[in-house]
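Reviewers asked in the last cycle whether our approach scales beyond single polypeptides. To address this, we selected a multi-component target totalling 342 residues and predicted its structure end to end. The input consisted of the following lines:
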Amino acid sequence: MKRIALDMDGVLADVYNHFIKMHFEETGESLTIEALEGKTELEAFPHIRKHVNSTGFFRDLKLIPGCQQYVEQLNQQYELFIVSAATEFPLSLSEKQIWLNKYFPFLTWRQMVFCGSKEIIRADIMIDDHFKNLDYFPGETILFTQPHNKFADAGRHRRVTHWEEVGQILL
Amino acid sequence: MKRIALDMDGVLADVYNHFIKMHFEETGESLTIEALEGKTELEAFPHIRKHVNSTGFFRDLKLIPGCQQYVEQLNQQYELFIVSAATEFPLSLSEKQIWLNKYFPFLTWRQMVFCGSKEIIRADIMIDDHFKNLDYFPGETILFTQPHNKFADAGRHRRVTHWEEVGQILL
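The resulting structure, written as structure tokens, was:
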């Protein structure tokens, strides 16, 4: 059974719309997803570090559309691990686990990895929205489109823009 | 540079003496390390799940003697990751990070992994006190002696009883 390392933020959890909401609350400025395409997350949201270090940020994120049903199916056909960069933001550790338990109750604690660098991950397939994670991974790589990577050359990574495409490739 | 996956509980953090203290506070019974040798942790401490789920348990652990100086040296000569089973005990996540930051301030968030199963770990060397982690690891394995594994046949794993021995092997 092949092992998948599946990212959270930007793949399961919709961080962009939450950043946009927090940006509006803080500045009164309404941003659109389209206006943020091609910018890094830090370029798009100058206060991003304050946002991700606030209590509740990771607990309150909404789902990326469609991901629940596909994750449930992947979980039946693969050895699935959720691998999330979390140790940079200490508050995120418990909030991420609470969030996973809420939206993916079929996953167990054995399948959750909260780390810093993902270079230590051993799996066959990695699904992630960040090149810094995919580029060091020796297996099959799927780049999940998010505004920050939208115009970048995917290189050796296979780009998907919706969960339906993940399903078409892996199920 | 070779990569080491280094366990916390029973290798860096002295869980046994803390369990003995909590057992005494709860029952009035004084246990000795010697009396616990050869027993599983659950056999040794029937209330272990209550202990590890109490606030402060992982934050208040003392160090296994000598580990700080050797970890600092390993950190200079290897790509070092601390890999700790933590997601089974949700309170432990933030407490373990606080504990690592306190006793090993030279380690960064990039080097910390809080997981469930360690089968997903890719490294060259694993140092751990549990066969359930070492047995699935394809690289070099070092079994750190703790009361629960003291009389077990180490098998393919190299057994060490003190941090000095880890230093002799790896430094």
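The radius of gyration of chain A is 15 Å. We regard this as preliminary and will revisit it once experimental data from Aim 1 are available.
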